[in-house]
Amino acid sequence: MLSTDSWRTVGPLSGSIVEIEDDFVFVNGALYYLARNTEGRKFILSFDVNDERFQEIMLPDDYLGEFSPHFCNFEQLAVFKGLLALVAFGTDLDEEDLCIIWVMREYGVIESWTLDTVPVDYVEMFYGFTDNGELLIEVKSGIVSFDPDSLNENNLGIQYTIWLGYINDFMESLVLVDE
């Protein structure tokens, strides 16, 4: 039942946060945002919806080290096989287009970040991962699913993509409905 005056303040947030990006992901009961502190360092800000607490998760040192300076086209958080991931696309020092995928294997443990670097053609937009770990990306030919292990690309035949920006991570589930 909804009631009036049910809003409350939760926090506190760190005073060093100067920017929180609009895009977020929801994994294991928490919302995750990329944020930046006053020193210009990016980190992940999480909000656990169960205990209503914020937490700052540090990214690996030099997490964009594969890219030449100032050639990271874009980066965003994603859900990779049920785990929190950071995906970035850009150009390396040899001017090759790359995708780097950082996956946090153990929640909240900075040392558990693992890196996978994948060569890709120029990516215009990243929409997320499929359940089996394929990237859903927009390239010049349209929307493709791209397998980072085999490097196989499957053109999905989708050209008009405005609606894809409104899709959250898809996960199948069976729910028993008690009548």
Automatic annotation (TrEMBL):
<dbReference type="InterPro" id="IPR013187">
    <property type="entry name" value="F-box-assoc_dom_typ3"/>
</dbReference>
<dbReference type="InterPro" id="IPR050796">
    <property type="entry name" value="SCF_F-box_component"/>
</dbReference>
<dbReference type="Pfam" id="PF08268">
    <property type="entry name" value="FBA_3"/>
</dbReference>
<feature type="domain" description="F-box associated beta-propeller type 3">
    <location>
        <begin position="5"/>
        <end position="136"/>
    </location>
</feature>
<dbReference type="InterPro" id="IPR017451">
    <property type="entry name" value="F-box-assoc_interact_dom"/>
</dbReference>
<protein>
    <recommendedName>
        <fullName>F-box associated beta-propeller type 3 domain-containing protein</fullName>
    </recommendedName>
</protein>
